[in-house]
Design brief:
17 helices, single chain, antiport, transmembrane helix, mainly alpha, Na+/H+ antiporter like fold, transport
């Protein structure tokens, strides 16, 4: 641990100095940070030699996901999305369940040693997407707005949707393995969801109301207005956990509540810059740690079955459900392929892995499950990172020649 923080700080400094040079290239930030983690991790240089079950690793991952969940949820404006809701609604309402089902089936077939609850748990762990791994796809202005917004909203919301699913399936898997009783599993899940929602609503409402009141009375400094969303995210998480609730559900619900009240009061998106930047910073550190303490050791347990499952997870398991979710919306093949390919796995999956590691040995095939998840993330960081900029450019050129019509990616009868 002695040299872990200096090594991470050095990586951040070097990348910051070169960040403009790599912007828009196939070399993305997650690729750089993950590669740096591999280089400085315990399997190589040994500078970041931290155990995956260490409290610092768990705390880093949980803080990062809480900030990102709050930020993503606070940014959702359902009224503004009303005219463009068809695509994200289909990706989340049809594509996400089908992706979990396909991932479950693939795990049962390819990773035959997994019990069915473990196979389902792996599918849920790998279901959420992370737009940060292919940033060009959601930021390139020449891409059709409907496509960019659809992928961005999907990525922002599916983390929060998958958190309660993860908690439920994990409890089922632990009960099936005899680690906890069935009644205890039901009570645990009920408390985590119930207290998580309550803490999130309370924290988000209090923070938004205080910010609105302070603005009306002109008693808050603009700098401290930036602190409010960060403090709200921390408040939601830290209130939920001691009560037995899920801090992640609290952060997500808190963000939805905070954003809705702020917009109703005419607050818009101001004050969120520090929250976004804090999330980006913690995400960068998380990917360094991921490379050092998770991916490095997992590469030593790589097998053809695990590699095959990772390949299926990033292709068939994602792309076929997306294609099925778009049936009836007049999709064209390049658009379907583009939407299907860009479902990268990242931060949420890393945190789910660390949560399982928090209480090791409760699942009979835990090592295989976690290795498959970690290898899939590593493959996604590389594949989606390298392909994001060039494929986004190519799709942008194609879309200019074949612009989306008013009825493309929209249900019949929708605006």
């Amino acid at each position: 641990m002695t040299w872990a923080l200096p090594a991470i700080a050095g990586v951040l400094l070097v990348f910051a100095a070169l960040s403009r040079r790599v912007e828009g290239t196939p070399i993305t930030a997650p690729i750089v940070f993950t590669a740096a983690g591999l280089l400085f991790g315990g399997e190589a240089a040994g500078l970041i030699d931290v155990d995956a079950t260490a409290e610092t690793v768990k705390l880093l991952a949980e803080v990062t996901l809480a900030l990102v969940l709050f930020s993503d949820a606070a940014r959702v404006d359902l009224s503004a999305l009303r005219t463009e809701i068809s695509l994200p609604a289909r990706l989340l309402g049809i594509g996400l369940p089908l992706t979990i089902a396909a991932g479950f089936g693939a795990a049962v077939v390819v990773l035959g040693d997994l019990a069915w609850p473990e196979a389902l748990l792996l599918a849920v762990i790998l279901a959420p997407t992370d737009a940060a791994l292919g940033q060009a796809v959601v930021t390139l202005r020449t891409l059709p707005l409907r496509v960019r917004q659809g992928l961005n909203v999907e990525s922002g919301l599916n983390d929060g949707i998958c958190v309660p699913l993860f908690l439920v399936v994990l409890a089922i898997a632990q009960a099936e393995a005899g680690a906890i009783g069935g009644g205890a599993a039901v009570r645990l899940v009920t408390e985590q969801i119930g207290f998580g929602i309550a803490a999130g609503v309370g924290a988000g409402a209090i923070a938004a109301a205080m910010l609105a009141l302070a603005r009306r009375r002109d008693t808050i400094d603009p700098l401290w207005a930036q602190i409010v969303p960060v403090a709200a995210a921390v408040l939601a998480y830290t209130v939920a956990v001691p009560l037995g609730g899920s801090g992640f559900i609290a952060a997500f619900v808190g963000g939805l509540t905070f954003g809705a009240i702020r917009r109703r009061g005419g607050g818009g998106e101001e004050g969120a810059r520090l929250l976004d930047e804090a999330g980006d910073l913690f995400s960068a550190v998380t990917f360094v740690v991921f490379g050092a303490v998770l991916l490095g050791p997992a590469l030593g347990h790589l097998s053809l079955a695990v590699l095959g499952y990772a390949a299926l997870s990033l292709t068939v398991v994602r792309m076929v459900p997306v294609a099925l979710s778009l049936v009836g919306t007049h999709p064209r093949a390049p658009t379907v392929a583009f939407l299907g390919w860009f479902g990268p796995r990242g931060l949420a999956t890393i945190v789910f892995v660390i949560l399982i590691l928090e209480e090791p040995g409760q699942l009979p095939h835990e090592d295989l499950l976690l290795t498959a998840a970690v290898i899939t993330i590593g493959a996604s960081v590389l594949a989606h990172g390298l392909s994001a900029a060039p494929l986004a450019d190519r799709y942008a050129v194609w879309s200019r020649r074949h612009p989306l019509g008013e009825d493309d990616l929209v249900r019949p009868g929708e605006p």
